[in-house]
Specification:
The chain is of the alpha+beta class and 225 residues long. It has 2 domains: 98 residues, PriA, 3(prime) DNA-binding domain (GIY-YIG endonuclease, 3-Layer(aba) Sandwich), CATH 3.40.1440; 69 residues. The protein has 5 helices and 10 strands. The strands form 3 sheets. The chain has a 5-stranded antiparallel sheet with strand order 2-1-4-3-5. It has a 3-stranded antiparallel sheet with strand order 7-6-8. Helix 3 packs across helix 5. The C terminus is likely disordered.
Length: 225
């Protein structure tokens, strides 16, 4: 079976009028309408697959990064809703994800949560011969058993954390998994959940500094909603 690629509308900080091309790992059955976690600069963001095919639309195949995982087992959108989202984006010159988001169920735009889990026992660490920094990171992960990447960043510092995790992951010493953070619950003045309770699904966006991709530039943004 040949390589497969997905065109994904990514929920990023900056509005984009085009999709991004990602490679689909052989173990993933990615179809249009599926929600997915994708690498985006140094972040992991959510996106919706709007097309899946054998040839990437953007960038040479060797420069395309693979999507990380699907969100859920079934597609969130059918072909008709994807087609409608594309029409909205084209008709109103709207960012593609903003158009797709109109079709999504409530609560989708929650912040992705990255969990790091060890694949080795404490007794195995001494025999691995790791340098000091990777060993320190692995020991922290093993001690926690399973830890949120934000907690790990606080414990070890943000500097070179991604490189350390990538190194440990490449050696099959840890695994990263992605889930949706629970929705935030806001309480009314009474402090009681109920009539005065407002439940919101929050999306915390961070700036993206480096994105390797060919895209068209737009000279203006139109508020269409």
């Amino acid at each position: 079976m040949g390589k497969r690629y997905a065109e994904i509308a990514v929920n990023s900080t900056f509005p984009h009028w085009e999709t991004f091309s990602y490679a689909v790992p052989e173990s993933i059955d990615a179809r249009p309408g599926h929600a997915a976690y994708v690498p985006f600069g140094r972040l992991t963001l959510q996106g919706i697959i709007v097309e899946a095919h054998d040839t990437p639309v953007f960038s040479p195949p060797e420069k395309i990064r693979p999507l990380r995982s699907l969100i859920g087992e079934r597609p969130l959108l059918d072909e008709d809703r994807i087609a409608l989202a594309k029409w909205v984006a084209a008709r109103y010159i709207a960012p593609i994800f903003s158009a797709v988001a109109l079709m999504l169920p409530p609560g989708f735009e929650r912040q992705p949560r990255t969990v790091v889990r060890p694949l080795v026992d404490p007794a195995e660490i001494d025999g691995l011969g790791l340098p000091d920094r990777p060993r320190e990171a692995l020991e922290a992960i093993v001690q926690a058993g399973e830890t949120d990447i934000d907690a790990l960043r606080e414990a070890l510092g943000a500097k070179q954390l991604e490189a350390l995790l990538a190194q440990l992951e490449k050696q099959d010493l840890i695994v990263r998994e992605y889930t949706l953070a629970p929705p935030r619950i806001s309480y009314g003045a009474s402090g009681q959940r109920g009539g005065s309770c407002r439940r919101t699904a929050s999306w915390s966006r961070a700036p993206v500094n480096t994105i390797s991709r060919t895209s068209r530039s737009r000279s203006r943004a139109i508020a269409w909603w």
